What does this fold into?
Amino acid sequence: MKKIMYYVYLLQSLKDKKFYTGFTSDSKRRFEEHNTGLVTATNYSLPLNLVYYEFCLNQHDAIHREKYLKSVNGKRYIKNRLKKFPPGIVFHRVAEGFERDGNKEFINFLYIAKGSNGEVRSQAYSAFDVQFINQESFEDMLRRTDILKIKIINLILTLKFGGPKGYK
It folds into this structure.
């Protein structure tokens, strides 16, 4: 017997930048319903982009989580969450580290960027599992995160064992 998973999701209108929060047990179907105008609450603000989602073990938890995310505290939580983890976060970590004083600090930020790259990889698995992305996109994301991980590791090794020391 397959256990039903529930998802609480946050969509953002590309038209007016407004957010819509909902829950479903069939994320692919529901996302298609939103983007084809079948959902009254969002049909005025198409197209929509999925910007956040969470898994819930049952419908009761999903309903409560949806209500929380629609509350003042929930909106604040989402705002902070999206600030912490915007698109392109891996590259932001590298850029932040580059402006530090020496290789040691820069290497530290490269390790953080490597961890962020792992988060992107994990999200690719989650997105594929709930059919937000297809097999081709999933494999492309895994390939790209593998390439980026190797580049980050090579840069760390170059900074640790070769190249100039001290200030850049």
About this structure: The radius of gyration is 20 Å. The CA atoms of residues 128 and 136 lie 10 Å apart.
